[in-house]
Hints:
The radius of gyration is 22 Å and the shape is globular. A hairpin with a 2-residue loop joins strand 33 and strand 34 (about 410-415). With about 525 residues, the protein is mainly β. It contains 2 helices and 42 strands. The chain has a 6-stranded mixed beta sheet, with no helix packed on it. The protein has a 6-stranded antiparallel beta sheet with strand order 6-5-25-26-27-28, with no helix packed on it.
Amino acid sequence: MKGHSAQLVTPPTCLIGALLLCGFALPFGGCGDGRGNGQQAGGPARAAEAEPLDISITVELGKDVGQNLGSLFEAVDGDGRVLFGAGFAGACSTYMRDNHYVLQFFYRDRNEDARFNSIGRPHKERFRPRLVTFGDDLLECSYRRGFDGKQWTDAGALQAGILNFQYVNNKPLLFTVGKCARAEYDGEVILTAPNAYGTYYFGQRVFLSTLGRVYCWRWDPRQGGTAEPADPPFAPLGSPEDYVLAFGQYGGRLLCATGHGGIYAYEAGRWQEIYKSRNGQFYTMLNYHDKLLLGHYPSGMLYEYDGVAVRRLDNFPPRPPGASPLAREAQTLAIYRGDLFVGAWPWGELWRFNADTSAWTFRRTFERPPITSVEVPYENEMLQAIASGRTRLDYNIWGQRISQLVNYKDTLVIGTSNKRGNLFVREKYPFLTEKELRQYGRVHQLRMNSSISAQARWKITPTVFRFCFDEAAMTMYQDGEILYAIRHRASCSPPPAVKSVRLGRGVFGPFSGKIVSSKGADDGEQGR
């Protein structure tokens, strides 16, 4: 597809200090044709002299209570630059928790060979796809559509009405929302509640947000049966109209961030308000090294939480040249290939942070209209439509969102939307051409050299993860079975020698389980 080239923005004195420990990242490469699709290993070896990497780590994950697992290892060169890493991301954006069973393995190749392509729209009439990885599948869960590698088709893996799910003991805990919301596990409804929004499971507790409250139920999936109200059964939010937009975890605590700018923590049956924004909303959370990052509106910047205080990271990310500073929104966060990615409103911006240079690069996921100083795309046209009585919708309904960022196989999948995903009525919006309209609800893939992901299995007994990189391929295993493997592109450059290996810490945050032993990293330092 045609696309806007990447742009480089270097903020003044960025910023996170000791947090920024991850390695080299070049700006985005140019747009490709999207044909560099991941393939299973086994083809002819690439002609390059690469020092092989072969690391096995035996871990005890512990009892599955919905905890984020974090980093397994990072390998660095003699200059301290991260070369390789692996771990499980902990992210949640606009009600939806990312699949925290997905294991990522990456090599930070200096030759990135970044390719960006569109994979179509899951639904022709809807403009807000809700994307999830479900086992080995990429699904749009609102309308049960699946991507088969070429096109979107009907997929029955999820029942209708599912807003969110997460795996617990290798089975999906399914959440529906609305007037009669419920949570369902292993074919049994474990709870029902009216008018629910955000949902989350952590610490043998099921959390569910309604207007003005966060409800909490006790539930042990190994014992079965329905969930029981916890003590206390709910926590009041800052106002009767407030609601939770994102959940997260830090240091064994559950955190929830709301549409009225509040951040609340739950631990050992006690709720605490730890932050209150005077004007704003928090849409997304992500564990990143030893901090928890939160995406904010209307600043469009990230905040960080270190277990003590919440701080705003000014100009992090910045805004595109010429764009208005008003009403910006960092809606989605993800880690791909060891880099931090942010999806931002209102110009459909995909931002990527280079920790070595403290610089951001971005590209737009929409081609039209060009960025101007108006607050949102098509603002003037919408104000005219409202004044003429053609529509009663918000003037910013055609703002451009990145509503999802999902790791899938060797790609970062990017879902786009307008503000609400409303159905389109041509008579109301004559200023939108068919080509401009089709930008909304479209899904893209970013594919860069040497990053793979796949869903692992949770085991109570010790389990062995193995990570291999040689001149032909990169492969990750669990207990001897291949989770995913890919041949290198011809452009992939051989890595420098690994100087040391850090176990249990890295870009995904500290490992929450126990590292029993390692092979190929015995001289490494274990961090907790």
